[in-house]
C-alpha cells in the first residue's frame, strides 16, 4: 500500500508517519518511511525556499520545483519500494503542492497537471489528513521549533487549511482521503485511530 500523511505544519504528520512505520514494522510488514520535499538537490532547493532563502520566485515556479522533486522521488524511491511489495508511508505528497501553490481554481488545475505523471503512475491508496486547528498548529510550532517556515503564520495556515479542503473536493472522485480529527487526542491515540482506519480499509489484514 501507498499511504500518505498530510496536514498543516505543526499538525503532527511527521510524528504520525514515523509511528505508523514503526507499527507496520512491529507487524512484520516491510515498509519505507519517506518524506517530501526530499533530501535530493531539487528537494533541498524546495526546502530552502520555504525557509525564505530565495527571492521573489513566481508561485508556479515553486509549484514546478516541488513537482519535479516529487517525480524524481516517486521514480527512484516510491515505485521501486512498491514493486518490492513494501508499504510506503510518505510525509506529504502532491496534496501539499496543490494546497500551498494552488492559490485559485485556475492555478490549482495547472498544479494538478504538473503532478499528472505521478498520478498516472500511482494514486495513493489512502491519504490521512490530520485536521488540527491553525491556532493549535501555531502554538506547537512556536513551542518546539527554532526555525519556522515562511508559511507559518496564523493567517497563512488558515488559508492553507481552506485550500487543502478545496483540493480534496477537486480530487474526491479519484483519491481516497480520510480526514482524521485529532482534537483532545495524544500522539499515541492519533496513531491508533489511523491504524484502525487502515485496518478497516484492508479488511483487518494488517
Percent helix, as a range, is 55-70%
> What assembly state would you assign to the polypeptide chains in this entry?
single chain
Q: What is the distance, rounded to the nearest whole angstrom, between the alpha carbons of the first and last residues?
A: 11 Å
Annotated CATH topology: Rossmann fold
Strand runs, count: 5
Can you describe this structure?
It is a single chain. The protein has 206 residues and is of the alpha/beta class. It has a single domain (2-202), classed as P-loop containing nucleotide triphosphate hydrolases (Rossmann fold, 3-Layer(aba) Sandwich), CATH 3.40.50. 57% of the residues lie in helices and 13% in strands. The protein has 9 helices and 5 strands, in the order E-H-E-H-H-E-H-H-H-E-H-H-E-H. It has helices at 13-26, 41-50, 59-83, 94-101, 105-114, 116-121, 134-144, 154-171, 187-202, and strands at residues 2-7, 31-35, 87-91, 126-131, 177-181. Strands 2-3-1-4-5 form a 5-stranded parallel sheet, sandwiched between helices. The longest helix has 25 residues, at 59-83. It is globular, with a radius of gyration of 16 Å. It starts with a strand and ends with a helix.
